[in-house]
Each structure stands twice: as C-alpha cells, then as structure tokens.
Automatic annotation (TrEMBL):
Residues 325-571 form the Heparinase II/III-like C-terminal domain. This is Heparinase II/III family protein. Its main location: other. Residues 1-16 have a biased composition (Basic and acidic residues). It comes from Sphingosinicella xenopeptidilytica.
Length: 577
C-alpha cells in the first residue's frame, strides 16, 4: 500500500510482525568471540599491530554534530561526569572500581570531546583534552579487553581525528607520535576485531571507526574498501526498512543518524565521493527518525529511549539536506504514524525486540503518544536511555512496565515479561496490523498475543484519526484466543486502559464518570468520552530528557471481561480552536 505524503516501507493490510529480528547468537559465535578476546592479549596479536606510524592526518575534519554545552562546561572545569559518576581529570583513574561500566565506556570512547568543544575554545579545551589523552596513553598503549574493545576503539578512531586541534595542540613530538601511533595500531586492531563484535550497534560503531581511519590515515585505500563492506553487513543487522532500528528505540535511530552524518564529514574532508552504503543509510534512518517525531519536535518515548532535546533532532535532520519524508506505515520497524491537521499520533505497533537487542526494552506493545500542534497530550512515562542523569534502578524498572504506557494492561500484568538485568522474556510474539486511509481519515487496527497463553485473550486496539485532526476515536477490546474459545473459559479478568498525560496537561472527569475535559497548557481543550469502563483520573510520572521525573496525571478506564471478552470505546474531540 502506497503512503501518500510520506514514506512506506512496504507494509500491507494484515501485516504480521513477529518477534525475531536480531535472533540470539549461537553458542559457537559466543565462543569464537571469547577466544578472539584471549588472542588479542597475546604477543602475537601485538606484533600484528606494528607498522609505520603516520606522520600526520590526511585532512582536517569538522564534526557536524554539536555537543551538549552544559555537559561540556563540567568537563572544561575538570570533571568527567556521566551516568551519575564523576572523576576529576587531574586524579583520573580509568579503571576505578567505583565507576560503573557505562562511565568507563564513555571515557574510553572519547565522544565526550564533542561536548567539551561545544563549551570551550580550542586553547582552553586542549588543556583538559590533552591531560586525559596523555593519561589514557600511559595506561592503555597495549591491549586491554575493555579499553580496546572494537566499538570503543572505533569511537576513538572517529573522535580523536575530529578533535585533533584539541588533542594535538602541543608541539611536543613524542606525545604527537604516541597519539598518531595509537590511531594506526587501533585501526589495525579493529580491522581484525570488527566482525567478531556482537551484531548490532557495537559492530556498526567498530565499522564506522574503521572507515573513518581508512579515510583519514595514510595508506588507507584498501582499509576503506574493507570498512565499507563491514559497515554494510553491520547495518543489515541494525537498520530496518523504513528507518527503524533493531532495538526499536527511537533514540537509537537518532544516534545512528548522527554517527552516519559524522562519518559523511570524513568523506567531505577528503573530497571523496560518499559511499553508497552511507548515503542510503542516512536517507533511510532520517525518514524513520522524522516519522517518530511528535508535534513538539521530540521523539516518541518507546523502549527506553528518551524524548531528546528538539534542537538536537532538528539539527540532525537539517544536516541530511533536502526534504526528509517521514515513514508513516512502518511495517518492518513496527511504528505507525498518523497525522492530520495539527494532530500527530505515533503507535508502537510491533513486537518487542529480540533477546540480544532488547536490553532495557519496554513492555508497551500497542501504546501510543499524541500531540496537538506543538503540545504533547498523551504520552508514555519516559525512558532512561539518553537521559542526562542516571535514574534509580527502581524507577528505571517501573518505566519498563506495561502500566507506564498508554495502552491496555490485563490484571496488572506486563504484556511481555521483564527480566532482571534489562532483558525481556515471553509475552508478545506477534502483532498483526491493518492500516486503511481514505478521504475521511486514517484507520489503524492492530492486535497482539501477549496475554493469549496466560489469560486466554488477544488485545485488539483500533484508532481512527479524522482528516481534519480534530476527532480521534479508539477501541480497546479483549477477544478470546482460539484455545480459550475451544475450552469455553468464562472467568472474569480485570483490566485497565491507561492514558498518561504530558506535563502541564490537566484532566477533569465529568460528573457522570463517562468522560473528561482535557486541557493543554496552552489552553486548548479536548473532550474525552468513554464507554465500557469506569473512568478515573490518577497520578502518574514522566521522565524528561534531563533525567528529571515530574508528576503528571493519567486517565484510567477500568473494567472486567464478560463471557471471555470486553470492549472499551473512547474518543477525543477537540473542543476549542
């Protein structure tokens, strides 16, 4: 079905999306990876990294992505802070047991140079940058399992050349030789280790760094060809048709777009024709990112991804160039976008990611977010990934639950089981989606089987958005699963349909308990009506891009199944201009 006015990744009516993209790695693959890590620490591997050190970089590359000024100011002040942990630059211990793994990965990757440069000029920033680089080289000139991990080495291969004016400002020949020699050795290491990395973003980062090295270091023509092939293969496991990513986390799609745009800058610096694999990936993922934007310019908060600052998203899309068309019918990515008038709706209409890519994923299948103009109205409760501040473990776990999403929950039970450590267990295995568009508006009809085995019901959600964007009609139904119909199960099951509201949005229930007036911060009013359940207004929570959690409201429609099923009808109609 073609998608007028926006991209369509090839979906069709009755599209079935099954959980399985990014299948678990085999035991042989894990063993091969472990043996490779052991081999990297041997003298033989160290000898393979020897070679003529480069005398200089082939070009000066400018980073197209602007860093976080607030984070950069803290770094310029001599504090390396990330994920709730801080270390002083002058007493830096990279391997401190106090630091969480996320902090150590962040420091070893040196992507924080982007933030430093956003907050300080070259002269001041170089003081901090060179202190850290010098300390790092003193500790990690030889292989270390974490510091030399191929994805982190890949980041250094990209960010050290990008910020060469900050880390190579001194004229001291020994120091400069050490920096350039590490880049050459790291490139040789990643060249051998890239394909041993787990499928997903780690392999993409390794391949992208290797490609940057091929472009910016002398005698890199053959390496560039190998790296472009490695990147193509890595993206096949990450990038979905329509611009989604295997993790199904919108903020991961944005991060991938920024990495590809940064890689494009290396081609531009060398005045070399851009590789097709990079160009095509930029086009694809930018459409996916734009399709996941609400009217406020922020991403939908799904599967742990943070909403992100709108300026960051707008900058990345502007760098793409041309008219980026949003993916609307994301048959492969599992996201559906409905937009009309001033209203935008984004629906998570796909199964959760597979086990190996689902760390931190949420159990929010068929949840939706909705905005009116530049004001978000219906939301999910937020995510921890990408937030500026670390969240408490208890809160991070709460955000992953089905109850933290604007969808239906049966018997206060997650639609997909949440595992300790951030993984997902059994639950939703298949989502079936039908989309229909006409002059009247857009209909979306989707079902998931997350409650079929445990409660004998299928959740079916239908949403209609009128062509003028002022009328939204929805239906949430619990239909008996086939096995339940055969067995004749009749036990009543409680359920709740939740509509979490954005900060500043107020909800006032009507006297008959069958509706509510929803008032946006800007004063616009929507009238909500329900049938088939009891409406209440309760408290909820929202985590913004800074990591701060704020009290918000939620509308809850509660009921019980009868004769094995139940139906709740609800609608939002804009009551003001």
């Amino acid at each position: 079905m073609s998608d007028a006015g926006g991209r369509d990744d090839g979906g069709r009516d009755g599209q079935r999306l099954t959980r399985g993209r990014g299948a678990a790695r085999t035991l042989g693959a894990r063993l091969s990876e472990k043996l490779a890590r052991i081999g990297y620490a041997t003298p033989l591997h160290n000898r393979k990294l020897r070679g003529r050190p480069p005398l200089k970089l082939l070009a000066v590359t400018t980073d197209p992505i602007v860093g976080d000024v607030a984070a950069g100011r803290e770094i310029a002040a001599g504090k390396l802070s990330f994920g709730g942990h801080t270390e002083a630059v002058r007493t830096l211990n990279f391997a401190t047991a106090r630091a969480p793994l996320a902090w150590r990965e962040w420091v070893h990757g040196f992507e924080w140079l982007r933030d430093l440069a956003a907050a300080s000029d070259r002269k001041k920033g170089a003081i901090v940058a060179e202190l850290v680089v010098e300390a790092w080289l003193a500790s990690y000139r030889e292989y270390d399992e974490l510091a030399w991990r191929a994805d982190l080495a890949g980041r250094r291969l990209m960010f050290w050349p990008l910020y060469a004016p900050y880390i190579l400002s001194r004229s001291e020949p020994i120091y400069r030789s050490l920096v350039l020699n590490h880049l050459a050795r790291a490139a040789r290491h990643v060249d051998r280790a890239c394909e041993k990395m787990p499928e997903g973003m780690p392999r993409v980062e390794a391949a992208a760094g290797l490609l940057a090295a091929g472009l910016i270091l002398p005698e890199g023509a053959a390496r560039t060809v190998r790296a472009e092939n490695a990147l193509r293969k890595a993206l096949e496991d990450v990038l979905l048709p329509g611009g989604g990513v295997a993790s199904r986390r919108p903020s991961d799609a944005l991060a991938l777009l920024e990495r590809l745009l940064t890689l494009r800058a290396f081609y531009e610096a060398r005045k070399t024709e851009l590789s097709e694999v990079v160009a095509e990936a930029i086009e694809t993922v930018s459409s996916g990112v734009k399709g996941l934007l609400l009217g406020d310019g922020r991403l939908a908060s799904i599967h742990g991804g943070n909403v992100c600052a709108p300026e960051r998203i707008a900058k990345a899309l502007a760098l793409v160039g041309g008219n980026v068309r949003p993916t609307r019918n994301g048959a492969a990515s599992g996201f559906q976008r409905m937009d009309a008038g001033k209203t935008v709706i984004v629906v998570d209409a796909g199964p959760p990611p597979a086990k190996d890519v689902g760390s931190g994923a949420h159990a929010g299948t068929l949840a939706f977010e909705m905005s009116d103009g530049d004001a978000r109205m219906v939301i999910n409760c937020g995510g921890a990934d990408g937030a500026a501040a670390a969240l408490p473990d208890a809160l991070e776990g709460l955000l992953r639950t089905t109850a933290a999403h604007s969808t239906l929950i049966v018997n206060d039970t997650n639609s997909t089981r949440l595992l300790v450590g951030g993984g997902l267990g059994k639950g939703v295995g298949e989502v079936v989606v039908t989309r229909h568009e006409s002059e009247e508006g857009c209909w979306l009809d989707a079902t998931h089987d997350g409650y079929a085995k445990r409660f004998g019901v299928i959740h079916r959600r239908r949403i209609f958005l009128a062509a003028d964007g002022r009328d939204i009609r929805g239906e949430d139904a619990l239909e008996p699963a086939r096995a339940t119909r055969l067995l004749g199960r009749r036990k009543a099951i409680p359920f709740d349909v939740r509509f979490h509201l954005a900060p500043g949005v107020e909800a006032t229930p009507t006297a008959d308990g069958k509706g509510a007036l929803v008032k946006l911060a800007a004063g616009r009013v929507w009238q909500m009506k329900v049938r088939g359940g009891r409406l209440t207004v309760d408290e909820s929570i929202f985590v913004d891009e800074s990591g701060k959690h704020r009290s918000v409201a939620q509308i809850v429609v509660s009921g019980e199944t009868e004769s094995g099923g139940a139906t709740v009808n609800w609608s939002f109609k804009r009551a003001s201009k």
